[in-house]
């Protein structure tokens, strides 16, 4: 049964990512928007004969009832919780509050030979330290879109801005001041976490994942912060945890 594929489903705050893996290699990937009820991609993948099991990671609301679809299938299923057995030891107080997406991403990038700082940049930004097979801890802060929306929502005169446009050291008008402040602020935050981790582990590797990973990578390059992008960190982690539990 080792040749059977694993279908991973990551239900986030704004969308759900669905990926079919053969071992740890993604074969097909798609995104289900929470603004629609179109789950045809998931239905198609669930019916594939090469799919041998399903691994679910859920941190957001599920308006498309994706989790129910998975539970009703006849496939072996792993629904990740903070207490699910995994190849990683979690050194975190109040483990029940630890987001399962953070667990999956950490397992997805962990390596016995090098510590990792895994930054998952989505609606929220999590920045977690993994050393060997140990989850050490991390930080949570608002993501880019949330920072932009918060400034517009909680003030009476600031406009809603996005990442499209000039990003300067100092803005030359209100729009560029907001954009520069938000983007440079989050970039500096990630850089500070990297340097803090570097004081503990001189061989630390910074890994970016999540919807804003590519954009933030460009900003980190400007600051000469070494890093790499791993868009499959959560999915790979789900596959590893599924296999660790010998479900097929």
Notes on the structure:
- The structure is a single chain.
- By secondary structure, this protein is of the alpha/beta class.
- The chain has helices at 40-46, 66-72, 100-109, 144-153, 174-200, 213-222, 233-244, and strands at 5-11, 15-22, 25-33, 51-58, 77-79, 89-90, 116-121, 124-131, 134-142, 205-209, 228-229.
- The strands form two sheets. A six-stranded mixed beta sheet has the order 6-9-8-7-10-11, sandwiched between helices. Strands 3-2-1-4-5 form a five-stranded mixed beta sheet, with helices on both faces.
- Strand 7 and strand 8 form a beta hairpin.
- Helix 3 crosses helix 7 and helix 4 (144-153) packs across helix 5 (174-200).
- The protein starts with a strand and ends with a helix.
Which short descriptors sum up this protein?
248 residues, alpha/beta, 6-stranded mixed beta sheet, 5-stranded mixed beta sheet, 7 helices, globular
Topology:
Elements: E1 5-11, E2 15-22, E3 25-33, H1 40-46, E4 51-58, H2 66-72, E5 77-79, E6 89-90, H3 100-109, E7 116-121, E8 124-131, E9 134-142, H4 144-153, H5 174-200, E10 205-209, H6 213-222, E11 228-229, H7 233-244
Parallel strand pairs: 1-4, 4-5, 6-9, 7-10, 10-11
Antiparallel strand pairs: 1-2, 2-3, 7-8, 8-9
Helix pairs in contact: 3-7, 4-5
């Amino acid at each position: 049964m080792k040749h059977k594929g694993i279908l991973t489903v990551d239900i986030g705050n704004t969308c759900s990512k669905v990926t079919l893996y053969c071992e740890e290699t993604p074969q097909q990937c798609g995104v289900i928007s929470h603004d629609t009820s179109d789950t045809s991609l998931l239905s198609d993948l669930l019916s594939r004969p090469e799919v041998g099991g399903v691994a679910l990671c859920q941190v957001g609301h599920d308006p498309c009832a994706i989790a129910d679809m998975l539970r009703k299938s006849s496939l072996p299923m792993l629904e990740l919780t903070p207490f699910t057995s995994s190849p990683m030891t979690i050194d975190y107080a109040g483990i029940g509050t630890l987001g399962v997406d953070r667990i999956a991403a950490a397992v997805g990038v962990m390596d016995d030979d090098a510590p990792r700082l895994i930054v998952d940049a989505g609606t929220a930004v999590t920045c977690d330290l993994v050393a060997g097979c140990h989850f050490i801890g991390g930080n949570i802060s608002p993501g880019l879109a949330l920072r932009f929306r918060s400034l517009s929502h909680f003030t009476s005169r600031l406009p809603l801005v996005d990442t499209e446009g000039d990003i300067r050291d100092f803005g030359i008008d209100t729009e560029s001041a907001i954009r520069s402040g938000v983007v440079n602020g989050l970039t500096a935050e990630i850089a500070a976490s990297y340097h803090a981790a570097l004081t503990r582990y001189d061989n630390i590797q910074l890994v970016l994942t999540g919807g804003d990973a590519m954009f933030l990578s460009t900003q980190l390059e400007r600051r000469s912060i070494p890093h790499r992008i791993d868009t499959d960190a959560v999915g790979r982690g789900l596959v590893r945890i599924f296999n660790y539990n010998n479900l097929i």
